[in-house]
Design goal:
748 residues, mainly beta, twelve-stranded mixed beta sheet, 11 helices, 36% strand
């Protein structure tokens, strides 16, 4: 399905808007259960509607199998790379993040009432409508102004948090379903037709048993109870080893429980929490499995939708689990899923308030004692209970004049002392009388004996002048002390004009300043600037620049900096000892000639006025030229074989990698029979075609389709023709040849 582009202000997505983006090379929609809903589109800069692509515009596309078009607002457009841009867009419902709703003093007791209040209290026009079939009774209140989207879900106390459910974002309608999906009746056998590394991790970390214990502390002491051995799930023996969790049941019994009571509590916990049944975490990639024998086993999943339920059997463990489709990646152009993700059937943003209340209370009780210990530790530390004493000294009048922080209470015995008074702060490791080897006085000075500095401001060197005894034999020595690296900077008439700089990064000249050039010119010899010498317009190497290094010469004019390890530079021309490369301004066209790999590559159009041939060895006949097969339009082709089944049909899937390179909305298929009988192409689809004919008949096929991005080309006029004088004139050549033959006969 071809995406459609609309203006930012569009509200109804039933027309062709600004245009259908037929040249789109890739378009995928990713949606997660109660989460992400985004579109990513790749479009050529040569596309008809490239100039209309802008932030805020809306893209309309099909997000899943059997679903209607949805609107996505563009929030990011990448820089052109290889002639393509990547466009990212979020579902139009993300607009709810920009619509605040006021605080509401009245609480809502139903989901429908809560949703209605959010819209009613919106401080901006809200074009969205809300619907729900959730009938759970609970209490929701917007206690402070917030965006409507944050109130819907993803935060503590949100509508989803309180009432539960599954959201469906349908353009301008927000639907909160009690259960959005359906039970598909599909069953996957894990390990037979599908495996997944994350699922293997889930199996390995599945708890198979519990060890319950009870503990009670009182003034008379501590009383405990536990079993002699753990209690296991029925299928625990199917796992390579037991994974047993400790279960604190202290809050479940006021008096010491018996072994039977502990066992019963453990068994109920195992059943309630499905111990021994792994959480489902499987990603099914249709692209990777389409041509394997197992594809028929997972093919039914191509018709599921987000939040649908499937069963996953684990034969090796003797259990099965219910799983939901929690994420889909839909290929809009091919009208099929690239992948789906199956996960355990639970709310992924948060559990409901009612379901989480008991667990929260149990967690609070178990952590109370831990929090009390932390508070006690912090209190003792501040009060000096864990070491350290704060002493307030007074003067002769009894007024405080000094604060001491010491390792003992007395100044006569203290060793580590921090002393603060009106003159400053001193730090001593030699008692109250010092010396204070680290000090900060009230006048803002540090004694030089107490400071180690990598850099000292110039105002510490009087008049910016170095004493003569620092210059040896006419040489200025900088750095080299305590492993420090020196530097020299020469300024012009003020410190904003750097004429020259020498440091550990290299040598820099601002030739523009001291040569009086009208245009900026800077010269660098630094390893981080092209690993050699650079002549530049700007200091950071952006814009026009030439780089020289032992390995290459680069001439470029781009916003990228001229740095070591050449990356993307455009437009530019690069020359090395065995290669030559040129890039266009948009990086969508370039030419490379590589001597080491003996390769000549052009990204962009390639036009010749003569023939195109390849030299191939013909054995004893020597090297011969083989010429390209040309057509009036740009096409690609593929070939294969098949055999018609007993039902008289043969389904031939198209290679998904190949279909990414061609326009499959219309293509041609040619058949060749290999035996008695007949066959013909009955159906053509974007991802496969159907051949009908004599059962058991083998056949060969050839498929041809127009190249993607170039499907509109056909016998276009050469806009840059080679001049006639440079073209071969076969008529003149023939006349000259005949004339030479005639002259030869006359001479004989």
């Amino acid at each position: 399905m071809i995406p459609i582009l609309y203006a930012p202000s569009e509200k109804n997505f039933i027309s062709n808007g600004l245009g259908r983006l037929a040249e789109t090379t890739s378009c995928k929609v990713t949606e997660e259960r109660n989460g992400q809903f985004e579109l990513e589109l790749i479009y050529p800069v040569t596309g008809r509607h490239f100039a209309s692509l802008a932030l805020g515009c809306i893209l309309s596309a099909t997000p899943a199998d059997g679903k209607g078009r949805q609107a996505f607002r563009i929030y990011k457009i990448s820089k052109p790379m290889s002639g393509l841009v990547t466009v990212n867009a979020r579902h139009i419902s993300y607009q709810l993040s920009a619509i605040p709703t006021k605080a509401d003093p009245d609480a809502a007791t139903t989901a429908a009432d809560a949703l209605a209040k959010l819209k009613q209290n919106a401080v901006e026009p809200c074009p969205f409508t809300f619907w729900t079939d959730v009938t759970t009774s609970a209490t929701y209140q917007t206690k402070a102004p917030a965006s409507i989207r944050s109130c819907l879900g993803g935060t503590e106390g949100s509508v989803l948090d309180v009432f539960g459910g599954e959201y469906e974002w349908d353009n301008w309608t927000v639907k909160l379903h009690k259960s959005r999906g359906r039970d598909t009746g599909i069953t996957l056998r894990y390990g037979k037709n599908i495996t997944d590394i994350r699922q293997e991790d889930s199996i390995e970390n599945t708890a198979t048993g519990v060890f319950p214990y009870w503990i009670k502390e009182s003034e008379d002491g501590t009383e405990t109870a536990s079993l002699k051995s753990p209690v296991y799930a029925e299928n625990a023996g199917s796992y390579p080893y037991h994974m047993t969790m400790v279960l604190d049941v202290s809050q479940d019994f006021t008096e010491k429980p018996t072994e039977e009571q502990l066992t019963a509590r453990a068994l109920s916990y195992i059943k309630a929490n499905s111990l021994g049944v792994p959480d489902v975490s499987i990603t099914v990639s249709f692209l990777a499995l389409w041509q394997t024998e197992n594809y028929k086993e997972i093919a039914p999943l191509e018709r599921v939708n987000l939040c649908d339920t499937v069963r996953v059997e684990f034969p090796a463990l003797g259990v099965s689990a219910s799983a939901k489709v929690v994420k889909t990646v839909y290929n809009v152009l091919l009208d099929r899923y690239d992948s789906i993700e199956l996960g355990s059937a639970r709310t992924n943003l948060s559990g409901t308030i009612s379901g989480a209340a008991k667990n929260a209370e149990e967690t609070r009780k178990r952590t109370d004692s831990f929090l009390q210990k932390v508070v006690s530790y912090a209190t003792k530390l501040i009060e000096g209970g864990l070491g350290g004493h704060v002493v307030m000294h007074t003067n002769a009048d009894g007024k405080p004049n000094e604060i001491l922080i010491m390792d003992t209470e007395s100044t006569s015995t203290a060793v580590h002392v921090i002393r603060m008074n009106v003159s400053g702060i001193g730090f001593s490791q030699n008692g109250y009388s010092g010396p204070y080897t680290t000090a900060w006085t009230i006048d803002g000075k540090f004694n030089a004996d107490f400071i180690t500095a990598g850099t000292i401001n110039a105002d510490l060197i009087k008049s910016g002048t170095l004493n003569a005894d620092l210059i040896r034999a006419g040489t200025l020595k900088v750095g080299g002390v305590s492993d420090t690296v020196g530097s020299i900077i020469v300024y012009g008439n003020n410190t904003s004009n750097t004429l020259m700089k020498i440091d550990d990064t290299g040598l820099f000249f601002n030739a523009s300043w001291w040569s009086g050039l009208s245009a900026p010119l800077m010269i660098d010899m630094r390893p981080n600037i092209f690993n050699g010498m650079a002549i530049k317009k700007n200091e950071n190497g952006t814009g026009a620049a030439i780089g020289f290094s032992p390995a290459q010469i680069l001439i470029k004019n781009s916003p990228d900096a001229l740095v070591a390890g050449l990356g993307v530079q455009y437009p530019s021309c690069e020359i090395t000892y065995n290669a030559f490369r040129m890039w266009s301004a948009l990086m969508d066209q370039f030419v490379t000639m590589d001597g080491s790999s003996k390769a000549f590559r052009i990204v962009g159009s390639f036009t010749v006025s003569g023939t195109k041939s390849r030299v191939a060895s013909a054995g004893d006949y020597g090297d011969r030229k083989l010429y390209c097969y040309e057509m009036p339009c740009a096409m690609f082709g593929d070939t294969g074989e098949g055999t018609i089944g007993e039902d008289g049909l043969c389904y031939v899937p198209l290679d998904p990698v190949f279909t990414e390179t061609v326009a499959t909305s219309q293509y041609q298929v040619f058949l060749q029979r290999y035996g008695d009988g007949d066959c013909y192409v009955k159906e053509r689809h974007p991802s496969y075609f159907v051949v009908s004919g004599t059962a058991g008949l083998s056949f060969g096929w050839e498929m041809k389709a127009r190249q993607k991005d170039f499907d509109q080309l056909r016998l276009e006029r050469d806009m840059d023709p080679v001049s006639i004088s440079n073209k071969a004139n076969y008529a003149d050549e023939a006349d000259a040849y005949l004339q030479s033959l005639q002259e030869g006969r006359q001479n004989t």
